[in-house]
Amino acid sequence: MVALTGTLLVQIVVFLTLIWFIKAFLWKPLIDMMDDRKKHIADGIAAAEQGRKELERAETRVEQAIEEARQRANEIVDNSNRRAREIVAVARNEAETERGRELERAREEIDQMVRQAREALRGDFARISVAAAGRILGRELDPKAHASLVDEFAEELF
User: Of 5, 34, 89, 129, most Cβ neighbours within 10 A?
Assistant: First the structure.
């Protein structure tokens, strides 16, 4: 059996006082700090997921724009071919010249549409990247200040 001495009683009182002090003054701030950190991490993950979804939506829009450009190009080429066949009946030389001009114009228009679609994708990508990075870092980034970095990254992707 343990003898209850004065030292043991003082140690018990000090130990109980220490437990009370930790519970009263340190436990709640520590738990709050851990909860805040957990929420911050969850917000970062949610922001990254939102950025990924935005990027997927932008990619879908670009694919649709490219498909529309292809359809339009096909229509232009079909129209050019149809016109060329009609003109061939009248004058074969004129038809060949006209067909060549129409095809060149169609190619230029296709090239222009592809460039516009790429520029639109770069703009969307830059906006989404800056927004996602800003959310992950927990502060707002200035797209104008980081435009050169975003443009350089977009050039590497495309």
Answer: 129
Q: Which helix (H) or strand (E) holds 25?
A: none
Residue 143 falls inside a structural domain: yes
| Closest by Cα among 42, 111, 19 to 72 | 111
Domain that holds residue 53: 48-157
Answer yes or no: are the C-beta atoms of 120 and 69 closer than 8 Å.
no
Q: Per residue in 55-96, pLDDT tens?
A: 999 999 999 999 998 998 899 889 988 888 888 777 777 778
**Are 97 and 121 spatial neighbours (Cβ–Cβ below 8 Å)?**
no
Q: What is the pLDDT of residues 99-120, one digit of tens each?
A: 889 999 999 999 999 989 888 8
Query: Which residues 6+ apart lie within 8 Å of 126 measured at CB?
Result: 143, 147, 150, 151, 154
Q: What's the structural domain count of the chain?
A: 1
